[in-house]
Amino acid sequence: MSIIQPKNLLSVPNSSLRIPRLRSKVGVTNQSILFSLVIPTYLEAGNINKIVRILSSLLDETIPGDYELIVVDDNSPDGTWETALSMTSEFPQLQVMRREKERGLSSAVIRGWQNARGRVLGVIDGDLQHPPHILLELLNAIEKGNDLAVASRHVEDGGVSSWSFVRRFLSRGAQLLGLIILPRVTGRVSDPMSGFFMVRRSCLEDITFNPIGYKILLEVLGRGKVEEIAEVGYVFCERQDGESKVSWRHYLDYIRHLLRLRFSSEKVEQLSQRWGFPIGKFIRFGMVGLSGVFVDMAVLYLLSDSNTLALPLTRSKIIAGEIAIFNNFLWNDAWTFADVATKQQGWHQRLKRFLKFNLICLAGLLINVLVLNLVFNFVIPNRYIANLIAIAVATVWNFWVNLKLSWRVTQIK
Ligand code: GDD
Ligand code: MN
User: Fold this and answer.
1) CA within 13 Å, CB half, 201
2) Distance (Å, rounded) from C-alpha 406 to C-alpha 397?
3) How many C-beta atoms lie closer than 10 Å to residue 276's C-beta?
4) What is the average pLDDT value for the chain, to the nearest integer?
5) Which residues line ligand 1 (CB under 6 A)?
6) Side-chain half-sphere CA neighbours of 200 within 13 A
């Protein structure tokens, strides 16, 4: 039986998240067009028909024949992608991508752009919370020479319809966190959380993206070559059908995304290359180590302090160190060395890494105990300062040996 791929069903690229130049992708018959708009969807069967109709009539009036709509659906069980596909005979400018393996809003947008023919690439939510007519103002701003035009809730004419105090507070809190961790990216726009914007393709070409979670604009501003930015105010409408997919996990994803952008900036990469030393990884390893210090210190206090259990120092230290090792492994595997860990999935591989990590850190713990006792007995008779020094020495050992042994991919030729 042969499987016939409907004409407007796009295949999902399985390459890295990189947007090709138009010339290399476009054949003789495929002309580039002005505008490609991606509509990421998950469980939007009740909205997709309506939004496609509205967007099409809007764009047919202003740029007829010079645009395409690309629905990227993550195999929604409500059949959103099928509904969209059934509309393609009536709306030939509509294309549909059904993703079965990958998930997530940000990567969906990039997958859509990878298949786009537009010189301007845009994104809009599929639930009609982004008022479609704002698209025309955004397009206008791009035509005036801006690289990126973003719809914002936080400029004149912008707002949210009826958000509770808690929701506003969380949203602003997340923005503040963005300003602290990544000021030069989030500080460039009034609404870095916006998922309603468009950007010149030339700003994104040949860049490999690596987003997590929901906030695609962070990725575009953080890695793209965007200079001039325009903002257009809009009111974030209430949902009429379906529900938001935002959960607590997305807040964590957001923080991870900010940190990833912070420590994978080009400068860090360049320095790493020049020095032949993975600075970004070392900083992350150091931060994870710091979390371990708190764990270690807290347990050491609970076990050895004269006000608590008053166990002997060495015994307390070994237990404290072991617990910290477990804490650090989890973070290092999920974050510091995630590039390697994701290539070696499965419990077996993970266990192997954990055992190696444990052995190396156990050796580190010996060094740690040794240094602690030396410093405590001969240099500084303060167990906490001595412990800090011991941890610093062990950290350098731990990083280097783990980099070489635990999280490495052996290239097979
Ligand atoms: N393909 C795909 N995969 N689409 C998804 C996924 C996913 O995993 N998760 C959500 N979507 C789609 C939804 O179907 C919707 O069209 C759009 O992405 C936004 O998702 P919502 O869950 O409705 O998000 P929201 O309204 O709470 O959040 C929005 O907050 C911003 C304002 O703070 C963001 O999505 C932004 O776009 C918006 O501007
Ligand atoms: Mn929504």
Assistant:
1) 22
2) 13
3) 6
4) 90
5) 40-42, 44, 72-74, 103-105, 108, 125-127, 129, 193-196, 214, 236, 244-246
6) 17
Cα separation, 250 vs 389, in Å, equals 37
Ligand 1 atom nearest 245 alpha carbon: 22
User: Which residue's structure tokens are 């994978």?
Assistant: 264
User: Which residue of 96, 214, 215 sits with most ligand 1 atoms within 8 Å of its CB, as the best mutation to test the pocket?
Assistant: 214
Rg (CA), the chain: 26
> What pLDDT digit, counting tens, does each position of 162-184 carry?
888 888 888 899 999 999 989 98
Q: What is the pTM of this model?
A: 0.72
For residue 51, which amino acid is it? Answer: I
- Which token pair is 181? 């961790």
Going from the Cα of 337 to the center of ligand 1, the distance in angstroms, rounded, reads: 29
**Torsion region of 65: left, alpha or beta (phi above 0 gives left; psi -120 to 50 gives alpha):** left
Task: For residue 95, give the 3-state DSSP assignment.
Answer: strand
Residue 132 token pair: 């479609």
d(CA 266, CA 138): 29
Tell me the per-residue pLDDT of 100-112, one tens digit each, with 9 for 90 and over.
999 999 999 999 9
